[in-house]
Specification:
It is a single-pass membrane protein. This is APCDD1 domain-containing protein. Pfam families: APCDDC. About 20% of the residues lie in helices and about 35% in strands. By secondary structure, it is an alpha+beta fold. It has two domains: about 35-285, no CATH class; about 300-475, no CATH class. Strands 1, 2, 3, 4, 5, 6, 7, 8, 9, 10, 11, 12 and 13 form a 13-stranded mixed beta sheet that branches. α1 runs antiparallel to α9.
């Protein structure tokens, strides 16, 4: 019986490892076949959120952005009370002009943008939001007159004095409702003066950083189709509210996508078939002023045990690129996390690898992120492997490893209580948040807390993140077959492994019990 159990366990672990490797292989394929083409021409069009997005704060948002090639834009943000985007709170509509400058200093394949809004309006979507906006304006705009907020009524919070309407040839960007009088006094005092806009944090500094790319739709490198979809990445949102007014992004938010029914486009001298649809896009693009009500998601327990890997090359503040792999073991609450850092945004040139481990503790105490659970990562061990000779040469390595550093040679960092140069402290506790969801395609996703945009340490339970990183996908799960595609699902060896597990399990239970 013991022999059969060992065989069963070995076969199961081997299958999970193979699936993790397959998921990583597919992510690498998609990254390395991504084509970046950032210009005003590729920016023009309609860009939509693929799902409910969580921003620091916490804010729950659906975005609907429209750009023209000459730089004219209309940005629509629907804000919600919940992380499912099922209960609308308010809508923000901004119209203006975008000009791009030089390439970004941190991201050479992105552009720096200069945003000049001509009009920003707010629409409360329920009575509670209207009352909250009244209180916010009273607090942030003392001594100034404003019109009382009402449900479904559009309020001007910023207006350029130069013109009342903003017209374009292709789109009708009416800045203000026809019912609002065309007087400078009324515009400036309809719902807060121009001077308090920054304090209200309704800014669009995300347009300071823009990147546009074509990314493969397919998950399997064996496929020969060049079907792609467009992604728009704009700058990240700061972790702390007081930084919003003047923040300069150094990373990106979740990509917006552009739907397409199958047009052929030439990018950098090559023809691509651009085809993409999403589940909520038709509802999101229906009306600027009437937000869609998405279906409320089921609350799932934080079943985090198993192995999880990145779905794509991820970006962190200050231009760091990496992939992650996490393992959680339930018997003794042990975790192992591997972070692989790269030089480039396609994660092809490896710079260094940090593998940390320890124990974790889960709890369901009430947090600002109501959909998440608290998790404390106790960091007890860590190894560092450097693959960049320049990093070894230029960085001071005192109190970071006992031996001289060599390319490709790992060192244990616990002997020097971590590596302060990289922000690793051993022992220490990382106070984080976690959430588990099932995607529309049927595979499990693991969300961990978003890294602080100012790289501040989270060394107190009260300083836990209020937003999430891009999710990891679970390995060794039957539902992940949809992520892997039909080729993996129909693999003879995997069917053999699965059948073997079932046979051994049957024998163990029925013959030896």
């Amino acid at each position: 019986m013991n022999f059969l159990v060992i065989v069963l366990f070995w076969t199961y672990v081997n299958g999970i490892s193979r699936q993790c490797a397959k998921l990583s292989e597919n992510a690498t394929y998609n990254d390395r076949n991504t084509v970046v083409e950032t210009s005003m021409k590729t920016l023009s069009g309609v860009w939509l959120s693929e799902g409910c997005e969580t921003r620091p704060g916490s804010e729950y948002v659906l975005r609907h952005y429209t750009f023209q090639e000459n730089g004219d834009y209309k940005l629509v943000q629907h804000h919600y009370w919940d992380d499912s985007c099922s209960s609308p709170k308010l809508t923000i509509i901004a119209i203006g002009m975008l000009k791009t400058k030089r390439d970004s200093i941190l991201h050479h394949d992105a552009l720096s943008g200069y945003n000049k809004p001509s009009n920003i309006t707010i629409i409360p979507q329920d009575f509670i939001a209207a009352k909250e906006l009244d209180d916010v304006v009273a607090t942030n705009c003392p001594g100034q007159y404003w019109k009382s907020w009402r449900k479904y009524e559009e309020h001007v919070v910023f207006a350029s004095p130069n013109s009342r309407h903003y017209k374009s040839h292709e789109y009708d960007f009416d800045r203000i409702q026809e019912t609002i009088p065309n007087t400078k006094h009324y515009l400036q005092n309809s719902s807060g003066a121009l001077s308090c806009l920054g304090k209200l944090r309704w800014t669009f500094n995300e347009l300071k950083l823009i990147k546009i790319q074509l990314r493969p739709n397919l998950y399997l490198p064996q496929k020969t189709s060049n079907e792609m979809h467009w992604e728009l990445l704009v700058g990240d949102i700061p972790s702390r509210e007081e930084l919003k007014e003047n923040y300069t992004p150094t990373a990106f938010q979740t990509p917006l996508i552009k739907t397409s029914k199958g047009e052929k486009e030439y990018v950098k001298g090559r023809k691509y078939l651009v085809h993409y649809t999403c589940n909520i896009c038709s509802n999101l693009g229906t009306s600027d002023r009437v937000p869609p009500h998405l279906i409320e998601k089921a609350r799932l327990p934080p079943y985090i045990w198993g192995e999880w890997v990145s779905q794509r090359c991820e970006v962190r503040p200050m231009g760091l690129y990496l992939t992650r792999q996490f393992s959680f073991y339930g018997d003794d609450n042990v975790w192992v996390g591997e972070h692989r850092f790269y030089v480039d945004p396609f994660c092809t040139l490896l710079k260094f690898v940090v593998t940390a481990s320890g124990t974790f503790q889960l709890d369901n105490k009430i947090h600002i992120l109501k959909e998440a659970s608290n998790i404390d990562f106790r960091i007890e061990k860590a190894t560092l492997t450097i693959y960049d000779q320049h990093m070894i040469y230029y960085m001071p390595w005192s109190n970071c490893g006992k031996q001289m550093w060599k390319v490709g040679v790992s060192q244990e960092l616990a002997d020097t209580n971590g590596c302060q140069q990289l922000g690793i402290i051993i022992p220490s506790v990382q106070y984080d948040v976690v959430k588990v969801e099932m995607s529309y395609q049927g595979y499990w996703l693991l969300f961990l807390g978003q890294a602080d945009t100012e790289n501040m340490p989270v060394d107190s339970p009260s300083e836990r993140p209020t937003a999430f990183q891009v999710p990891l996908v679970r390995c060794g799960d039957g539902n992940a077959a949809s992520f892997l595609g039909t080729d993996y699902e129909d693999s003879g060896q995997d069917r053999l492994n699965l059948n073997f597990i079932f046979v051994v399990a049957f024998l163990t239970v029925h013959v030896y019990s």
